[in-house]
Amino acid sequence: MPDEAPPLGPHIQQIRKRRKLTLEQLASLSGVSRSMLSQIERGQTNPTFATLWNLTRALNIDISELVGGQTSNRAQTIDVVGGHFVPEIRSEDGLCTLRILSPAQSAGRTEWYEIRLAPGGALVSDPHAKGAVEHVTVIEGELEVVSGEIRACVPAQGVARYAADLPHALRNVSDTETRAFLVVAS
């Protein structure tokens, strides 16, 4: 007789309640429908691997914790990456440089960048995933932030938060280089 599958539903429910999340909130975070989550938690259906993946990402847990019911033992390390190994993306006109500061495994969830824009430089983006939001902190200079049809100027030391699931852009509107940190949350 094959081994019985672990009781995933009650464990998901336990983690969700421990984090004080409603079914609606977890559905929004994971992209799994509220009705499917309810069926999983009640043990009426077994989730697919893709559903498990989305739930573990939304709950910020390892899949081994969900399946095995225990936290994974991660070695205590400090991962240091030399500046010359930090990936950079440059615009075709050379006026915009993005340094990718986030680790590769966070791609698609939370990403952070250092941005340098020469005067007149712009970072123009197509819409990201539904519900994506960007947070930009201007360190030096000044940025114009565009999100859909809305525009706002952000001075040095200012922060802007805006929808990134529609066309959006950052433009240097100052006479000097603008430096900023950008966080993309999907």
Number of domains: 2
Name the CATH architecture of the largest domain: Sandwich
| CATH classification class of the largest domain | Mainly Beta
Instruction: List the helices and strands in order.
Output: HHHHHEEEEEEEEEE
Main sheet attributes: strand count, strand direction, barrel closure: 6 strands, antiparallel
Helix content range: 10-25%
What fraction strand? 25-35%
The count of strands amounts to: 10
CATH superfamily grouping of the largest domain: Jelly Rolls
**N- and C-termini, Cα separation:** 42 Å
CATH topology of the largest domain: Jelly Rolls
Name the strands of the widest sheet in spatial order.
Answer: 1-2-3-10-5-8
Computed CA radius of gyration, to the nearest angstrom: 21 Å
Enumerate the spans where pLDDT stays under 50 for 5 or more consecutive residues.
none
Report the principal-axis shape. Answer: elongated
Mean pLDDT: 85
Query: Helix- and strand-based class?
Result: alpha+beta
